[in-house]
Amino acid sequence: MSARSRPTVPLAPGEGVDDPLAPSDRTHQAFREILYESADGVARITLNRPELYNAYSTLALRELARAVWNAAVDDQVGVIVLTGAGSRAFCTGGDVKEYARRFVRRPHDYWKYMAVFREAVESLLRCGKPTIARLNGIVVGGGNELHLACDLSVAASHLYLGQVGVAVGSVASGGATQWLPLVVGDRRARAMLLMNERVSAAQALQWGLVTSVAPSVTRNGEWIASPTTEEVGWAQKEERGYRIDLRKLDDAVETLTRRLLGMFPECLRYTKAQTNFWKELAWNQTVGHAQEWLALHFATAEPFEGMHAFVDKRPARVAELRQRMARDGNSDYLHGPPTRSCGACGETGLPEQFRYCGRCGSPLAEDAERASGGR
């Protein structure tokens, strides 16, 4: 019998090679920007970038998807809890410094990045197990989209939720434009998306944006039921006897996990799949288009200005872009459309606002004519 036709004997799972459908005992050792632990039927995944308010990088998103997959195939796990490190933020969305450094320079790479983001979001949506967002701090931008991808959420009382897309030159079409109208209603969703309004924990509970709220601010050891913005600031700085305390948040999450673990797992899985209908419909009808549009959009002036303004910690020059649009008919290009050519070296596609060639430095045609007095 030839080698080509020699029959093979399949290995049993775990015999000689790792079973690709089994959870890995080494998963927790492989991550750099998230934490993963599993115990007592609960997998806990923590975005571990507290110095950046748990803003996710491309690597963190890929690790998140891997962690969710590991929990999904682990038959000892019944519930997945997603949270952020520390007490300042659950997640503030994408790492804008990475956006400015990479995607403004290489817009087509944003298409690749969006594929990684979709994988992370869809892992939460389709993992077949109930997911709980433990909201331990600020929930903004893509952080709110990860939150919306989860089934249930418990919010610490000191946080706020919101979207920031249109303020930084982007669009929150990674879950927020699709799902906020389903969760909070059309008008409230538009206020969050178009004006980037902040929503307090108490307001989020009233709107149905979170499942429950747990007290998280204390003063001299006493719980503050509805802390003011000023009190939250004191608590975060540990001033005037105020502190952030997440014990009641953890108690509330624990209560939810115990209740869910008391339900039949296959019934939970199919209930989740059925309940996902409207979310899946909205997502699948729009996210592919969003991936294409956002990648193209990163080559324009709006994300360039928005991202760099954020990194430089200055107000974005939105008024200037609007004036340019009114005057020139577009604001797509940083220095005008690429319509000019250099008579000296033959370079083409130079921005309309350039007076000198970016390749050889020669004055461009009409500028050269003006410099010579029209001779």
What does this structure look like?
The protein is an alpha/beta fold. It folds into two domains: 27-297, 2-enoyl-CoA Hydratase, Chain A, domain 1 (Alpha-Beta Complex), CATH 3.90.226.10; 301-371, no CATH class. The protein has 15 helices and 15 strands. The strands form four sheets. The chain has a six-stranded mixed sheet, with helices on both faces. A four-stranded mixed sheet has the order 4-6-8-9. A three-stranded antiparallel sheet has the order 12-11-13. Strand 1 and strand 2 (42-47) form a beta hairpin. Helix 2 packs parallel to helix 4 (108-125), helix 3 (96-103) crosses helix 13 and helix 4 (108-125) runs antiparallel to helix 12. It is globular, with a radius of gyration of 25 Å. The chain starts with 26 loop residues before the first helix and ends with a helix.
Give me a quick take on this structure:
By secondary structure, the chain is α/β, with parallel strands linked by helices.
Quickly list its features:
375 residues; alpha/beta; 2-enoyl-CoA Hydratase, Chain A, domain 1; six-stranded mixed β-sheet; 15 helices; 15% strand
Number of domains: 2
What is the succession of H and E elements?
A: HEEHEEHHEEHEEHHEHEEEHEHHHHHEEH
Largest sheet: 6 strands, mixed
CATH architecture assignment of the largest domain: Alpha-Beta Complex
As residue ranges, the low-confidence spans are 1-11
Query: How confident is the prediction overall: mean pLDDT?
Result: 91
Number of helices: 15
CATH H-level name of the largest domain... which superfamily? Answer: 2-enoyl-CoA Hydratase, Chain A, domain 1
Distance between the termini: 89 Å
- Total strand segments: 15
CATH class of the largest domain: Alpha Beta
Which of globular, elongated, flat, extended, rod-shaped describes the shape? globular
What gyration radius follows from the Cα positions, in whole Å? 25 Å
CATH topology of the largest domain: 2-enoyl-CoA Hydratase, Chain A, domain 1
Question: Strand pairing plus helix content: what structural class?
Answer: alpha/beta
Strand content: 5-15%
Proportion in helices: 40-55%
Strand order of the largest sheet: 1-2-3-5-7-10
